Amino acid sequence: MEEQKNGIGALAGTIIVVIILIIGGFYFYGQRIEKQEQNQASVTETSSSDEIDDIEKDINDLNFDNL
After folding, report:
1. What is the pLDDT of residues 5-64, one digit of tens each?
2. Could you tell me the residue ranges of all domains in the chain?
3. Number of H helices and number of E strands within the chain?
4. 30-54 in b/e burial notation, b at 16+ Cβ within 10 A?
5. Quick one: 18 exposed, middle or buried, by C-beta within 10 A (0-12, 13-18, 19+)?
């Protein structure tokens, strides 16, 4: 009987660890998607003008800290 209980305990522990790893994976995947969306939003904020003053303004407004 004791061998059966040990096997069930180990199986339950393994299942709990796998569930925690899956939840952690979803969390980090969500963080990655959110970061990509923020980067995409900052890229689309630049103007599409060909004027030199607008180009200089766009360059000055860019955030290069995350590169």
Report:
1. 567 888 899 999 999 999 999 999 999 998 888 877 766 665 677 788 888 887 887 777
2. 2-61
3. 2, 0
4. eeeeeeeeeeeeeeeeeeeeeeeee
5. exposed
